[in-house]
Amino acid sequence: MQRPEIFDQLCLMTEYWWNKRDELNLLLIESQSPKDSKRFFANNTPSQTLSLGASLLESADLIKLLENDLASKMKSYAHEYISGFLAAPHEPLNRKFVSLCQRETQKVVELMTTWGSIYSTSAVSGTAILCINVWRLTKNKELLPFPIDKIKSKRLQIPSMDSGLVLALFSDLYDVTGESGWLAAGTDICDVYFENTLPVDAY
Fold first, then answer.
1. How far apart are CA 22 and CA 24, in angstroms?
2. What are the percentages of helix, strand and coil residues in the chain, rounded to 5?
3. How far is residue 146's CA from residue 152's CA, in Å, rounded to a whole number?
4. Residue 50 has what pLDDT?
5. Residues 112 and 98: beta-carbon distance below 8 Å
6. Do residues 99 and 122 make contact, with C-beta atoms less than 8 angstroms apart?
7. Which of 3, 114, 131, 168 gets the most CB atoms within 10 Å of its CB?
8. Which one, of 198, 134, 126, 203, lies nearest residue 169 by Cα?
9. What is the pLDDT of residues 56-104, one digit of tens each?
10. Which pTM does this prediction carry?
11. CA angle 172, 148, 175 (to 5 degrees)
12. How far apart are CA 124 and CA 163, in angstroms?
């Protein structure tokens, strides 16, 4: 790597959270939260743990030709974080997915909503996109069915601010399942939220 300071920064970022995980490989929502922060103090966040795993996997693919040892470490750490997400006290059969849980007891503090793009909270819709992304990278079959039943049950109750996220999610679900209903649902979203065909360069 031509710039050693970049390599040093990558190493620091890779290691920062590693020793902060618990026995399930889950991470706190903040590395340092004041005790009077009732919502955040000593609470794990499965979705952020999964997100870090996804980022490490993607980063490993980018640097493996330059720094294979670091790439291997990133992949190893990523798989542990993914296992932490899956070990969280979700109840898939009851369509309950954990946004926050206590570190010491794993008691559920907050469940995910289905929709809703709000900073510091986890929604099933956003987490589903993460699950699909990580599934593409790992082919871990435990990740793929995670969100689908919950989303199907709430498909028509979509906040307007989530339209872009929902289009991304439905297209991903169509891609990985081949179920035409997801494509049709995405088309319905476009009909509701956009009066005309989206321009080619629209985000």
1. 5
2. 55, 10, 40
3. 12
4. 97
5. yes
6. yes
7. 131
8. 126
9. 999 999 999 999 999 999 999 999 999 999 999 999 888 889 999 999 9
10. 0.86
11. 20
12. 14
